[in-house]
Amino acid sequence: MLGATFGHASDAVRRHPVASTVLFCATRGAIGDTMAQLAEGRSSSSSSSSDGGGGRAMPFVHDKKRLLTFVTWTIGVGFTIDRYLYSHKFLQWFPPRDAAGRLLRGNVAKAVVFDNFFFTPLCYFPVWYVFKDCVMGAGQGHTPASAVRHYAAEAKDHLTASVWYWVPLQSLTFSVVPAHLRVAFLSVGATGYVAVLSYLTALLDRGGSLFAPAGAAAAGAAPTPPALKPLGEAGGGVVGGPGGYGEVGGGRKGESFLREHLTKRHP
Predict the structure, then answer these.
(1) pLDDT digits (tens, 9 = 90+) for 209-254
(2) Alpha carbon of 199 to those of 20, 29, 86, 230: distances in Å?
(3) Where in the sequence is the domain holding 65, given as residue range(s)?
(4) Closest to 37 (Cα-Cα) out of 265, 257, 267, 235
(5) How far is 150 from 130, CA to CA, in rounded Å?
(6) Is the pTM of the predicted complex or chain greater than 0.90?
(7) Does residue 218 sit within a domain?
């Protein structure tokens, strides 16, 4: 019965590629960013309690502009990267199997290396910064050149998180997942990465870093200058946080978790 259900779902995805791409990608963008905002809200409230705030939980404020940013971005990624690049061009450049159906491990490795060490740092992240700074942050004086400089200043954090997350997942994508199911598979896997991307973007926008000493932002490290805060609106992302995606010192428990798990080999 499970096999029949999967077969029907697979056929539906094949018959409706555009609708399924929009559905899968919008869902992963919404769930991933909401997970990040909820994590920031919980850890911010917990930090307030431990700092003498009396333990009173503050209401969660959902940053809708931030949510829209990630939903729009993931839909664009779904069509341009997941559908066109991974499901079409990569099959031409790095075919995973030979004519006899044998797995070509060398091609899978080449696809993973190309995606994570060339395409992602040189194309994906520069375009992400231009999108969030210049499109979603329109009217705040950003330019493509300033967005790229913004990325260069924060590349180490984003690329570390990206490599840790995507190298194992893309090894599966490029070896065993059929082309017409790659958007669906990546949407399930990428939901967690959207949460990481959203949380890490918020952390960097409030002056933190995966490579800063724990609690540095809360201890008075200078936040990112206002010109580099593309989504600056009151209450952005963190409960009670003024500007950017949140306030300095918000979300410290999540920040410590990311730093511990993503930089344990990068002292």
Answers:
(1) 888 765 554 444 444 444 444 444 433 433 333 344 443 334 444 5
(2) 26, 13, 25, 15
(3) 18-41+61-262
(4) 235
(5) 9
(6) no
(7) yes
